[in-house]
Design a protein that fits this description.
This protein has seven helices and four strands. The chain has about 180 residues and is mostly helical. It has a domain at about 1-10 and about 35-110: Orthogonal Bundle (Helicase, Ruva Protein, domain 3). The strands form two sheets. It has a two-stranded antiparallel ribbon with strand order 1-2. A two-stranded antiparallel sheet has the order 3-4. The longest helix has 13 residues, at about 130-140. It is globular, with a radius of gyration of 22 Å.
């Protein structure tokens, strides 16, 4: 098995085609070759890898995990194992619409921003909006008027020092 840089597995038997009638001047062009694939697909604020499956590529966005990617692919009526770069424009537009309106399409327990502290709304944020919300929540945990550099013992609520710097805190898989 061969692997490309993006992790796509290619069987060794399909990598080399030896045709005795083909000369060195005429390269092999398959009908189902890579000329129609988009290597990067822009959805929202993220450039997704077009060589991976739909489900795996969508997890490259901040705020979209494996479960959300599966729900989006199923709601768009797209095979989740299909390569993202080979999809038609209308299928990609359907994915974009579902990503933008994901919070309205799914139950509240599947969203990442339930009962916001200030607005009370339940939304699902992706991209830079999610990063700003996380940073704002971490800063809100600090006492009124205290800055992280002024505070010796840390915040009243449990915000790990690594979370303040944008790293993983206490062995969790996520970013904060």
């Amino acid at each position: 098995m061969w692997r490309t840089a993006s992790g796509v597995r290619i069987p060794a038997t399909t990598c080399i085609k030896i045709d005795p009638d083909m000369s060195a001047e005429q390269p092999n062009t398959d009908e189902d070759g890579d000329e129609d694939i988009r290597y990067f697909v822009r959805i929202g604020q993220a450039d997704l890898d077009g060589t991976k499956s739909v489900e795996r590529s969508l997890t490259g966005m901040n705020g979209i995990g494996r479960r959300a990617a599966r729900v989006i692919a199923d709601e768009a009526d797209i095979d989740r194992t299909a390569t993202l770069g080979r999809l038609e424009d209308d299928e990609i537009d359907a994915i974009v619409e579902l990503v933008e309106d994901f919070g309205d399409q799914v139950p509240d327990w599947l969203t990442n921003r339930r009962r916001d502290f200030y607005t009370g709304e339940t939304t699902h944020e992706t991209g830079n909006d999610l990063e700003m919300s996380r940073r704002h929540d971490i800063n809100r945990a600090w006492p009124e008027g205290a800055r992280p550099a002024d505070q010796v013992h840390g915040p009243y609520r449990g915000v790990h020092r690594r979370q303040r710097r944008g790293h993983q805190g206490r062995g969790r898989r996520g970013g904060g």
